[in-house]
Design a protein that fits this description.
The complex is a heterodimer of chains A (106) and B (120).
Chain A: E1 9-12, E2 18-23, E3 33-37, E4 44-47, E5 61-66, E6 69-74, E7 83-91, E8 94-97, E9 101-105
Parallel strand pairs in A: 1-9
Antiparallel strand pairs in A: 2-6, 3-4, 3-7, 5-6, 7-8, 7-9
Chain B: E1 3-7, E2 10-12, E3 18-25, E4 34-39, E5 45-51, E6 58-60, E7 68-73, E8 78-83, E9 92-100, E10 106-110, E11 114-118
Parallel strand pairs in B: 2-11
Antiparallel strand pairs in B: 1-3, 3-8, 4-5, 4-9, 5-6, 7-8, 9-10, 9-11
The chains are: A mainly beta (106), B mainly beta (120).
Chain lengths: 106, 120
Amino acid sequence: SYVLIQPPSVSVAPGQTARITCGGNNIGSKSVHWYQQKPGQAPVLVVYDDRDRPSGIPERFSGSNSGNTATLTISRVEAGDEADYYCQVWHTSSVVFGGGTKLTVL
Amino acid sequence: HVQLVESGGGVVQPGRSLRLSCAASGFTFTNYGMHWVRQAPGKGLEWVALIWYDGTNRYYAASVKGRFTISRDNSKNTLSLQMNSLRADDTAVYYCARQDCASTSCFSYWGQGTLVTVSS
């Protein structure tokens, strides 16, 4: 089965840039999606197909994907960005999620 | 606007069955594949099952295959998940989600979730 590896936690000061990685075997050949989930809420799609943003998602959220690592970048981090973030791919007729990364805004 | 509303969760004993439903509105239900995704308390997201837009194909996570059955009623815009032989590790919030992003399967819309607790 395909495995996606995320760091359990990332911390960043307000106004700085947060980078959350998602590692997988040759993940650069797949399309990666990213979700933000706040406590008690359903996940929200923030980046799809590696780097596209749904309407309503700030430009501060961006994505990249190459080789064995995909990255979600959040620029000018705000307190409201504190949440869990999950990467996700489609692999041989199944959906795979990463383990999730807790973003803490210091 | 798109709405997905799950129902049917509750407390059930190990080995028993439960059926979840997801009522869809605000979009053409018959045009979209639909998924179930779950999240155990304090844990990450886990994909459960997929059913194609027309119901002709269904796929399951290894952890539920043979015990859970996903189905849909396109005349009623409803998605279902029949869960049999439930185990303690099936305890989770269950979300239904609409499949978007064509062949790469992202989820633009999620329900609010319904909690299933498997306990004696």
